[in-house]
Amino acid sequence: MAVKILIPTALRQYTNDLASIEVVGETVGDLFLAFTREFPEIRKHLFLEDGKIRNFVNVYVNDDDIRHLQRSATPVKDSDVVSIVPSVAGGSQSGDAELSPQEIERYSRHLIMPEVAVSGQKKLKAASVLLVGVGGLGSPVSMYLAAAGVGRIGLIDSDVVDTTNLQRQVLYSTADVGRPKLQAAIDRLNGINPFLKIETYQERLTSQNALEIAASYDIIVDGTDNFPTRYLVNDVCVLLGKPNVYGSIFRFEGQASVFYAGEGPCYRCLYPEPPPPGLVPSCAEGGVLGILPGTIGMIQATEAVKLIIGKGEPLIGRLLLYDALAMTYRELKLRKDPDCPICGEKPTVTRLIDYDHFCGIGTAADRRVPEPVREISVIELNNRRSAGKELHLIDVREPHEFDICRLPDSLLIPLGSLEQRIAELDRSWDIVVMCRSGIRSAKAVKFLREAGFEQVENLKGGILAWADEIDSSLPKY
Amino acid sequence: MALRIDENQKRLVGSFSEESYPDECCGFLLGRRSGTDKEVVLIMPTVNEQVRTEKYHRFLISPEAYLKCERYAQENELDILGFYHSHPDAPACPSDFDLKHAWPWYSYIIVSVRKGQTSNVTSWVLADDRMSFEGEVIESNPYSPEEQDVASRPVESQEDRTWD
Question: Which of A58, A211, A471, B92 would bridge B120 by S-S if both were Cys, CB 3.0 to 4.6 A apart?
Fold first, then answer.
């Protein structure tokens, strides 16, 4: 039985310029065996060295791709026409970029490991990673990914470097204070590795810009410090089908996972709803061990590199819990929630939403705390004290904060113990309550007024305002 | 060995490339063979079937598109001589990725587009050992009026860039 094989122009130089040839065989495999025996030069263009068909070579029996039939076992009959059809592909930047001699030297400790090797290093060079937030977590992530040779790194952050950042954000140096973070980051990362493309977005990630920015990156790393952006990053990754390398930190504890809706749960499967505003303190409010973002950030960098080179077990479906004080790692198994509003079976979130609103920011719940309380400015307090007016200054911060800085003649009663120690106060006193910024003291004022204290005022702006406006020798924290 | 293409056709390849910037564009070169030379008479744009997020540095022509184009070529007594594609903000020379996916004999025209403007047009043919590309001379004939109809055909159908 003879079947006609149509030869693309490109290969006719190997078939004596014939556009079609007739070959005998029962299956596609038979035909190709006979055909390549007759024209051996054609082999290398159709098959790889291991005998597998090249992935841009397609074989059609009539109008059907044999990949959808029985591949090389696809039977053929007399009237069939078999076509060799090229897929044509190419492009400017190599997905499989060559490494220059300088790069080979630089990455040699990767190249000698079989798990990375030249092929893995090329994948790193061809990869792109977007870091949302370049702070405590973003610092180690960006530095290690740059050093590892990730070819394209995107950074999004709108902040300037602040002195309080330097305790943990090792990407920045003391001389960078006051500079936009991204300017300082470019200098540092280019210093670590000049062979990379660093792209910067000096703005906040929002529902308006997020999809466009994230679309051209392979992996997104979440280094955010707030819930609205964390949900935004999650939703962007689910909608674009990209992995979200997640990390979060608080005081001595950290978490890490890889949320990848295509292969496992997303952040909303774990936390469908954000916590009420104010319940979970940020690092600025609660503090953080400076080394902690290093530990968690390096786990994130490791996961990103593993995803790129395709080795090992990614943290998909697992939540890693790290406790620096106990020095323990625990692991929780995460399941994909079939009712997840964005990656579940019937998603209700199909595009980006207003995440501030979703997280209760700017809503009634958010405004609950600062009910009107009588306030006094730092200038007025200073005037009254200078005029020798008798007043009692109550500081409701924690003892370790009191140790950092305090106003003379203030009485320390931490907010949590105010109720037990209320007997120390006299209802006839003129009282001014203070804390760091005026939030906790407002709660104390409310509590005291409800307890029958009438002459109670809140020091607006707290000790930070005092340092700014009255006494610049006072340290701020 | 040379690729003949008239100036008007060459400009057309440039304008397709600028139009799809910052993404890559791609298409077929149809024409006739004369000895070892090739003469392009028709530029046929086609859809870049790469996923949206990769188009800025990749192109893909599906086998279905190739089959359709080949059928069209046969009916019009033409051959597929090769392909063109653009390199946005990158040089007009083949990448390793181009090399890995190349077919023999075909001409690969590469258009370098810098900041939305065509800056260079080159043509390449895969070497016999599949290890490299060899540069191919592009001979641009001055614009010839009798080929105007053929040349302008794809412009008219350029809206959806398919032939159905």
Answer: B92
